[in-house]
Structure formats: C-alpha cells, structure tokens
Recover the amino acids of this structure.
C-alpha cells in the first residue's frame, strides 16, 4: 500500500479502494465565514476536525469574494531526491471555479504546522504565495519570485520552483483574498500603464493574457512596452531608393523606411508584430527600420525581443495615455498590404488606423516615417 505519513499505523481496508500515491493525510480545509471588501483581509481557509483530506484530493471550499460559488482547492506533493534519500514536499496547489466577482483580488496561500506556525513554502523563506486575479487572467502577485503561476479559465495553479515545506509538516493551508498589492514592474512583471518595464521602455498596454508568437512570453503575454525616447540615437537610416530619412537623436525617432527589399503581406492583428518583423527581416538590411527594431537591446536581457508593432499594436500605442513620448509625425507599423503599410499620425485623432493608403513614392519601402520599437512581456 502507499505511504501515508501517519504517526499510527494504517490498516488496509478489506475492500478495494482508490489509492492516491504519495498521499499525506491530516490536511483539512474549510473556509471560515467572513465578508469581503477589496481593501480588507478576508477570512482564512483553516483546519477542521473530522473528514481527512489528502494531497492530490480536491476539496470544495468557498471564498469571501466568490459569494455562493464553490471553489475547488487541490494541494499537491512531490518527491524530491536528496543524496540518495529525499522527501515529499508541498509543491503546488490548484484553485478552480473562481467567479468573475473575484476579479482584481490577490489570493494569498500559506501553510502551517501543527503548532500554528507559518511554514516557508518556496524561495527559502517565503511563507505566502501571492496570485493576482487580473480580470480572470491569473498572474504572480507582489513577492511571487520563486514560484510560477499557470492561468486557466476560472482557475490557476501555483507551483513552487524550489519547494521548502515538507509535506509531512503541513497541518493546515490558508487561502486569503485581499486587495491587490502593486508589484514591481521591472523585476516581477506586475505593471501599470506608464511604469518602466524590465527592458527600460514605457508600459503602454496592460491587459489579460494575449499571444505574441515567438517572444519570450509566448501565449501568456500581458504587457507591451515602447522603447524610450532616444532609443535609436545616431543609428543609421535607409537611403534606399527615394526613401531618404533622418537619423534618430536623443530627443527624436529616426525617420526611416521599414524595408529595403521585397514586400511580403503581413497582418494588422494585435499580437502579430513580432512575427511580422521576423518575416520581413529577410528584406531588411542594416539601415532599415525593421533591422533597428529587431536589434534593439533595451536595458536588460531583452535583445532579440523588440520589434516593429503591428497595425493594431501601433493603434494601441497611438491611443495610450503615454503617447506624448512620440514625435508629432506619422509612424510605420509592420503590417503590409500590397505595396503599402499601415501608418498612424500624431497627435492621434481617429479611432482606426489611417489604412493601407500611402500616396508618397510608391509606399512602404520608399516613404520615410518615424519608427519606434516595442516589446511584449
């Protein structure tokens, strides 16, 4: 039979029953009564007496922000080898069935031993695992470094990268719902519009998870940051064909042609900017706008992650509250239809991009406009 970590021996039942490997009894979870206000700590899920709960076994609970909606909480333990021995650790917990009424809160998960002391559960000494319900898209909250959060519809799983709490020492779990605590944008990727991102840019888009295929955040991106003013100071410009242009300075963007070669149709879809830029890079020499964007390095390890925005991404930048950092000029996107591309003018006055029309010198490869790199994270 499986090992259960009881002090007293467990006799095997005379009838067949489903066994859960690496199970640990004595974790009993119920939610105490309490009202929820976003700025007030909610009641704990605390230990009960009676029916035992095991790691790997799902438990029905309620949370203050959920009202009458039932949540399901499932703790998990895993075996970690250590010099030929090893032990079972509390490694993750899944909470599901979370309703929209919990949007905006932070869920804080903690574990306690039999004497009521909080146990470090990850990152050597962290006793709280914070998860932010960002409008139904779940992210690590302030202080989550050392854990990771997988988001699903109405559910999340928080996993501890280097778990600390022995499963045998866990006697109680708590789940607290609290008002959201702002995180550090540069180090924790918990950002608001106008924050400085990890790459040194300015955050101009904050939302539920979206896909920016090919980037480090992949299908779980939440933010877009725009390179700061002066990002292309003294970088070369394209003199290809009749483009002309001007070099970027410490206070202005380069006025440049995006490409220098064959045009390929690329979409205006939000989230397509990186793929567009990669696709067009084959037609971009070292003096072109696409090249400058793809080779911008930011201030961290984000080299290779910057790109020319798609039409809809450029539209989001055009209407963002931080667009005052842009020049009062037209800007190119990475979206092309036929021989022209999508451009926006500043100050922005419309609700849609200017379209695929460009009366100057035949279009995308011959007409200089301003260029500004962005990054998804």
């Amino acid at each position: 039979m499986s090992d259960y970590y009881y002090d007293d021996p467990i006799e095997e039942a005379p009838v067949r029953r489903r066994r859960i490997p690496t199970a640990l009894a004595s974790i009993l979870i119920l939610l105490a009564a309490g009202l929820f206000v976003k700025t007030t700590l909610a009641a704990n899920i605390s230990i009960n007496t009676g029916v035992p709960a095991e790691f790997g076994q799902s438990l029905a609970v309620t949370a203050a922000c959920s009202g009458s909606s039932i949540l399901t909480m499932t703790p998990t333990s895993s075996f970690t080898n250590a010099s030929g021995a090893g032990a079972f650790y509390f490694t993750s917990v899944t909470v599901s069935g979370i309703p929209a009424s919990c949007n905006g809160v932070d869920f804080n998960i903690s574990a306690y031993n039999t004497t009521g002391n909080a146990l470090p559960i990850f990152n050597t000494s962290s006793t709280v695992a914070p998860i932010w319900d960002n409008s139904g898209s779940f992210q690590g909250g302030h202080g989550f470094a050392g854990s990771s959060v997988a988001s699903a519809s109405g559910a999340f799983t928080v996993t501890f990268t280097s778990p600390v709490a022995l499963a045998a020492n866990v006697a109680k779990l708590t789940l607290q719902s609290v008002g959201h605590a702002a995180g550090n944008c540069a180090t924790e990727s918990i950002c608001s519009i106008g924050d400085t991102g990890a790459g040194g840019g300015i955050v101009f888009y904050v939302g539920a998870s979206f896909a920016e295929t090919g980037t480090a955040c992949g299908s779980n991106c939440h933010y877009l940051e725009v390179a700061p003013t002066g990002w292309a100071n003294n970088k070369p410009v394209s003199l290809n064909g009749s483009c002309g242009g001007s070099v970027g300075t410490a206070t202005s963007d380069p006025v440049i042609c995006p490409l220098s070669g064959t045009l390929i149709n690329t979409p205006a879809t939000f989230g397509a900017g990186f793929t567009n830029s990669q696709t067009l890079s084959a037609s971009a020499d070292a003096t072109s706008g696409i090249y400058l964007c793809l080779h911008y390095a930011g201030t961290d390890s984000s080299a290779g992650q910057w790109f020319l925005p798609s039409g809809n991404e450029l539209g989001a930048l055009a209407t963002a509250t931080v667009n005052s950092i842009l020049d009062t000029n037209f800007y190119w996107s990475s979206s092309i239809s036929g021989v022209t591309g999508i451009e926006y003018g500043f100050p922005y006055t419309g609700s849609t991009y200017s379209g695929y029309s460009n009366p100057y010198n035949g279009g995308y490869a011959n007409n200089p406009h301003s260029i500004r790199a962005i990054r998804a994270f």
Notes: Confidence is low (pLDDT under 50) at residues 1-53, 350-362. The chain has two domains: 30-179, 182-377.
